[in-house]
Specification:
By secondary structure, this protein is of the alpha/beta class. It has one domain: Rossmann fold. 43% of the residues lie in helices and 20% in strands. β4, α7 and β5 form a beta-alpha-beta unit. The protein is globular, with a radius of gyration of 17 Å.
């Protein structure tokens, strides 16, 4: 928790409730120990979806499809490509997408995320919005390909970028096993904020998120 718990709890009381189906899907995932997007990210996604009204969304990291179903629910008419590589989660995601009646709008792509997005880029796929919520150490690798696929004026959203607040710590203050992720996430944030093709804001809510808008190219 990056923001203090009392403030976060108060904000959550104002955020409203999900649909009963989403609420049940969220509870089932949490009870099973499967991470889902936190409430602050849910609120931010609702806002972004209402603002840009995306027609095509790419999600990297399906898990059990809660976030894909969430986005499909609040982005009327949008088509979502979502990528997952873990067999047990793929099975649950397929079941949840079918039960939600979203099979026509959510396309679950099985495979290694890096390989899949490179294939999508080779096919000249273009997206209004890309949501990264996968292995944190890979965010930096995903970035160049994601930039290629985001349309001008489109938005890239990255979740879990502040590492429960540990991102501000020295690498020697974090657990040895986490030092590679810590270093790569710091590099990812620097790369995002220094990229002249992107306008990026880092938000210290939930576990930290970034919103990056791809600059529109002016016609000469």
């Amino acid at each position: 928790m990056i923001t203090d718990e009392r403030t976060a709890a108060f904000i959550d009381t104002l955020a409203g409730q999900n649909t009963p189906d989403l609420a049940e899907l969220e509870k089932t995932a949490i009870d099973s120990g499967i991470p889902v997007i936190r409430r602050p990210m849910q609120s931010m996604l609702k806002f972004v979806l209402a603002d840009i009204r995306p027609e095509r969304i790419l999600e990297i990291g399906t898990a059990t499809a809660f976030s894909a179903i969430f986005m499909a629910t609040y982005a009327e008419g949008a088509h979502i490509d979502t990528i997952e590589n873990y067999d047990r989660r793929i099975e649950a995601a397929k079941r949840n997408i079918k039960e939600a009646g979203m099979e026509e709008r959510i396309n679950l792509i099985e495979g290694d995320a890096m390989e899949v997005i490179e294939e999508l880029a080779a096919e000249k796929k273009s997206y209004d919005m890309i949501f990264i919520d996968a292995a944190k150490a890979q965010y930096l690798n995903y970035l160049p390909v994601c930039k290629e696929m985001i349309r001008d004026g489109g938005i890239l959203i990255s979740d879990n970028v502040l590492f429960d607040g540990d991102i501000v710590q020295s690498r020697f203050a974090v657990r040895r096993r986490d030092r590679t992720i810590h270093a790569r996430m710091r590099e990812y944030l620097r790369t995002l904020t220094e990229d002249e093709e992107l306008v990026t804001v880092i938000l210290p809510i939930g576990d930290g998120m970034t919103l990056s808008v791809k600059r529109q190219v002016e016609n000469e």
